[in-house]
Amino acid sequence: MKFAKTAGICLITLATAWHAWGAPNNVQQWPSGLGISLGEPQVELIAVNTNTFLLSVSRYGVSEISHLTFLNDANTTDATFTAWHEIRRHRMVGIETAGGRLLMNPKNGEWTLEDASGKTLIPRHAIGNFNDDDSLNLTLGWDKHKPIYVYGCGNGVNSLKQTDVKTGVGNGVAVLPYYWSNAGYSVLAVTADDNQPAYWTAANDGGAVTWTFPGIQGSLYLMPSATLIDAAKNYARLTGYAPVPPRWAFGYLQSRWGWANQKYIEDTLAKFQQLHVPVDAFIYDFEWYTPTPDYALPASGLPDFKDFNFNTNLFPNPATQIADYKSQGVHFVGIRKPRMGNSDTLAMMRKNNWNLPGLSGRENFESRDVNFANPDFRKWYISQSASLLAAGVDGWWNDEGEAAYTMYYYWNLTEKEALARYRPGARLWTLNRAFSPGLQHLGAAAWTGDIKSSWATLAATPTALMNWSLAGLPYETCDIGGFVGNPSPELLSRWMEAGVFFPVMRSHSEIHETPRFPWLFGPDALNAIRSALDLRYRLIPYYYSLAHETFETGVPLMRPLVMEYPDDPHAANLSDEWLMGSSLLAAPILQPGGTRAVYLPAGKWYPFESNVPTNGGQTAQVTAGLSDIPIYVLAGTILPLGTVIEHTGQMPGGPLELEIYPGKDAAFTLVEDDGQSTNYLNGQTLRIAFKWNDHAGQLTWTSEGNYTGNDVYQRLHVVVFDPAGNKQAEGALGATGTLTPVR
Known about the structure:
TIM Barrel, alpha+beta, 4 domains, Immunoglobulin-like
């Protein structure tokens, strides 16, 4: 088929090709769907799983779209899903599963997506066109009577609703080729070249959204998803479930650029202990492996630069020191850069074509950036990691990896393979400055980059984190206190209090700024921060159980209110308060002065550890002292809490406290495991299903699983925040049980 250029925009529209073809007998049934031949272009309609359809277009012949980088290997389109059938209706052909229908008119190229009930999710619209630059447009119809806004693209804007995005990664920025529409579907776009992701724009008339794919192939993974909860589940099923992080990663992580020497590290640890400030990890910048950062290195590197090494000024005996610190509850996380500095290593890289020349945008990094996508380089890098992992490194902090869109994905894949080889059975935990789709299933977290220390930045941070939650990455954080600049004692205190309700709680700063050690900001800030950290550690049994829920379902820990209250217009774009799980609402102070407005959605809400519920559906003005955080719990909630401890190695530390907020029946499943190995994947867990009968005022529980470690809770303390006065009960936490709290 020959193509003619028209107005410099399209070679030929796909609709024109269908008109020229016009024969439904050119629809071919394949094991996983339908192929529609257009001459040179080829369209595929494929059933990936019950709730996911694939619309794929290739300009020349059969599509060869990459399905591996961003997707869960178990759910790629390998013809294993057979619970679908072909349908023909009103001159349309398509595929149907229990989750919906994907239909196309082979004469004019119009297509549509429906849910299982037959509701139109994407109105019929022409499919799109090829452009002069060999890019491809795929167009999704939109109801012209509804505004175009979506959720889940990432943190490109300071809003939950997003109307215009540009896919890519940057310093603390991750914008994904994905969104959920309140029309009732979600979509992930995959290009032929993963490092050139697709992006979308909205039509001026509001009638369509067009995805542009660099290159001559493009795929849309279309998922009927009535709610953001459904979207999260479908996205995780497609791109992979986030594994449960090690338990220490739910504690407080103290990061520092400028650890001076071994004495400085140990004096800092002693200060945490002396002041009873909880901490679970020290995160080390450049200085852990090199006395001098590599920013000023020439492109050729230096012969004495060590890329895989411990700086003896800090770690003269790395294995012994790391083991000693770990025995005191403090784990080791070290920074990594996606480039090499040793001249011999760089020469070898260039000889083997293991580098990414010309992509970094920083002259002295040119050709020093490595290509983790190269399997031979990954094998070499894995071998170089052996001594570091043997010394006891617990996690990696991956920085400045935005030279390629998939850099962090393959970087984490390399670290996962290294850990599996040298410490089999250990959980990978990494912290990354950006991410692309699917990174969550490797065990990755992300942080928002080199942010400023300001109230405005604090106020914007929850929005960024929730946008990442909606984009499929459930573990995220920021540099608490800001990276550049010094916070006031009030600002750092409030930022730490907000961090109690971030999935990862980590502070950090630039080398010339005051370290974010709590005692350096005065006694009032120290007391407020210690109180916040004590609460964080009490919440770990709750957060850790939510992490298992996230692993099993894909629903994130940190949720905007719209996720649980999709029909509440006030919640649609509310991001200065949020939920952890479904029923713990955090509304920390995000501005100076200690006051704020708090919106409570439908239901009855108890101020945390209070007996007096408040009716939802209204906004209240609240005032909080420096050590106070506005927190609310939904009536009909069982909230599991631990005791105050100074690191997670002290768990359980006492009885499990169940706080019951009555008014409705309630249920919660506590999940325990060893907190460090991957044995939970093989069923090595203890799951205790608690149920509260509100009418009878009675708690019952049953348990399943065979995990019996020393960190399992043995006793139970129950507190019911009854409006007539607290009711309490205590008892052994056996395999099954019943308690009736009384005053």
